[in-house]
Amino acid sequence: MKKLENTLNNTRVDTAILGLAPELNFSRSKIQKMIELGKITVNSKLIKPSFKLKIGDIIEINEEKENAIPVLPEKIDLDIIFEDETLLVLNKQKGILTHPTPLNKTGTLVNALLYYDCTLSDVQGEERRGIVHRLDKNTPGLILIAKTNEVHINLQKQIQKKEAKRKYLAVVHGIIEENEGIIDKPLVHFMQKTVKMNIAKENEGQEAITLFKALKRFEDLTLVELELKTGRTHQIRCHMASINHPVYGDTLYGAKGFRSKLNLKTTEQLLMSYYLKFTHPKTGDIMEFKLEENQYDNDFKRFFAIMNKENKTLWN
What we know:
Strand content: 25-35%
Order of helices and strands: EHHEEEEHEHEEEEEEHEEH
Shape: globular
Number of helices: 6
Radius of gyration: 20 Å
Helix content: 10-25%
Distance between the termini: 48 Å
Structural class: alpha+beta
């Protein structure tokens, strides 16, 4: 994979690639074919050759190389919430990457899916087989897996058009006074070639919109429900930190600077994908999934156990 940070505002993506990466020696027709096959994406999204770029967009070019290290099947337990011949809904465990990276080729959800030996889409390459949208390594919960390219593209378009709903639960530092609100702040990479994100300057970056709703308040913490309207890397984590309410345990986004009376030890952030709603690409049925408390990961289970047992009267 080769990432190119675009600075050609309002330029067709196929034209931009010709100018930005002449060393690849691609013809326009080859670029257009790669786009059609999903080998070239913008911000990890499928696009058309005529797609117009904006400042801050990231072009990803996925070339299969003969010497590439293959992604191998691994016996890793899968928590399957729903499955039919076209797709899967999984409850991803905490501490597992969604797909391989240049530094981590094993122990990922894709490795587990290959061992499960079901058909998987390959529209985004071998390393992202079946993956419609990703979750951070330490963010557990519901995730969509496509078995065919047709279904993959349909589901991804539902996400792009904001027709699919993805909701998260998070425990954040501080008391959020508003019952609900919206964070509309574009994001950029904090530094080139790092995964951390930052709030972009005016008229720069990728659009990022998060809706939040305060569910419970506890002395110095707030339990919030968050809905993604866009799907940027670390969007929720960066957005909450930007309003001085970092996710509990999220050391990458400033949680170390906060103290809480709860003093619960967690494996990084208390953030979970707990609700999915989409239209089934084949049947047209509305598919809706919501994790119950007994399906939460261990960190959230311990958090709610403490709240329900010892501090119930402190919730409001």
